[in-house]
Specification:
409 residues, alpha+beta, 9-stranded mixed beta sheet, acyltransferase, ArgJ_beta_C
Length: 409
């Protein structure tokens, strides 16, 4: 099965329209509302924040993904999170959905909503409603329309994040695409991120949810920027079946093929978020090999990528391997530190800096060159089995503090 990456966003699959615009939520210049719409009903799946404090849109979407027979649209605003806003905030979700339903001639229960931004503020619902109406009139299927939507959901992101791919399934060409936002308040078990995946694959709600729930474990749940888990984290998948493949209603080769394509999209988007961490200069990956099971590998990899001292060392291009080994040690996973090997890798090359728990006679100059690239990998072999896992993060810079010190300004 060959997956082909294409230049596209959420409008790449058949039947999907999108757009983004300025509704005056942030200011009068930045785009701050987006809409994605399918011309036909979609099966929907979602995964959400594990934070006990859940934003109103999370509550709204969890209910719809579970109970609604289908969905057709998602309305997103940036600038205000609609979190910690009580009954009024939840009511605004219903108001937004009702406005979109009227504009698009679909049921209110077919409209998902999402928000990102400052916690604690109430949405300017009149601006939201006006934005919904305006968006419904400019929806399009072009590449530019997808870009507008991706740009409108950004907060502190420095770049919009999109990816799309095509593949053959059941003799049909199908497309899977997605957009996401996220830059700070990023931590395993989701983050202050929103992700929207569209596909023209025909698949049951049950299997779509299973595919998403299982895939997020090794994608969005393996990224970290700063250790903060947000109130609004949401990943939604909409599948409208317009590729006209035989509907996937049971596990088998077609389901496996779809899962591989979904994983490609989710992994690409996860890495885009990790590589755009607030103030960061590089994507930092931690890969554990030789683990006895997946849980051990994931636990250790997450610990390394979350270590503030390790992240600071990566920023300083300092091969301070003791910080990596230390982070492995406090991860909670059991392993023998006296057999661990550690490598640093990037486009500049590969260097082994630790063998059997002690330093090799490596070149500090070479290590610094490797750590100076835009993508850096620390690979750790714990020599206990054949399982592997990778966590994704970034370096920790002065700019991170500056950005978050005046976030509301």
């Amino acid at each position: 099965m060959a997956i082909t990456k294409i230049n596209g966003g959420v409008t790449a699959p058949k039947g999907f329209l999108a757009s983004g615009l300025n509704a005056g939520i942030k200011n009068q210049t930045k785009k701050d509302m987006a809409m994605v719409f399918s011309s036909t009903p979609c099966a929907a799946a979602g995964v959400f924040t594990t934070n006990l404090v859940k934003a109103a849109p999370v509550k709204w979407d969890k209910e719809l993904v579970t109970t609604s027979p289908y969905v057709q649209a998602v309305v997103v605003n940036s600038g205000i999170a609609n979190a910690c806003t009580g009954a009024e905030g939840l009511g605004y979700c219903a108001d937004t959905a009702a406005e979109a339903a009227a504009a698009l001639n679909i049921p209110k229960t077919a409209v998902l909503v999402a928000s990102t931004g400052v916690i604690g503020k109430q949405l300017p619902i009149d601006k939201i409603k006006s934005g919904v109406t305006a968006l419904s009139k400019v929806l399009g299927s072009s590449r530019e329309d997808a870009k507008l939507a991706a740009e409108a959901i950004m907060t502190t992101d420095t770049k919009s994040k999109e990816v799309a791919c095509t593949l053959e399934l059941d003799g049909k060409q199908v497309t899977v695409a997605g957009m996401c936002k996220g830059s700070g308040m990023i931590h395993p078990n989701m983050c202050t991120m929103l992700c929207f995946v569209t596909t023209d694959v025909a698949i049951s709600h049950e299997l779509l949810q299973k595919a998403l729930s299982e895939d997020v474990v090794d994608t969005f749940n393996m990224i970290s920027v700063d250790g903060d888990t947000s109130t609004n984290d949401t990943v939604l998948v909409m599948a409208n079946g317009q590729a006209e493949n035989t509907p996937i209603t049971k596990e088998g080769e077609d389901y496996k093929t779809f899962c591989e394509a979904l994983h490609f999209i989710m992994l690409e988007l996860s890495k885009k978020i990790a590589g755009d961490g607030e103030g960061c200069t590089c994507l930092f990956e931690a890969t554990v090999i030789g683990a006895k099971d997946k849980n051990q590998a994931r636990t250790i990899a997450k610990s390394v990528v979350c270590s503030s001292l390790t992240k600071a060392a990566v920023f300083g291009h300092d091969a301070n391997w003791g910080r990596i080994l230390c982070a492995m040690g406090y991860s909670g996973a059991q392993f023998d530190p006296e057999v661990v090997d550690i490598w640093l890798e990037s486009k500049a090359g590969t260097i082994k800096i630790v063998e059997n728990g002690i330093a090799t006679d490596y070149s500090e100059e070479t290590a610094t060159k490797i750590l100076s690239e835009e993508e850096v990998i620390a690979k750790m072999d714990i020599k206990e089995g054949n399982e592997t896992a990778t966590a994704f993060g970034c370096d920790l810079t002065y700019e991170y503090v500056k950005i978050n010190g005046d976030y509301r300004s």
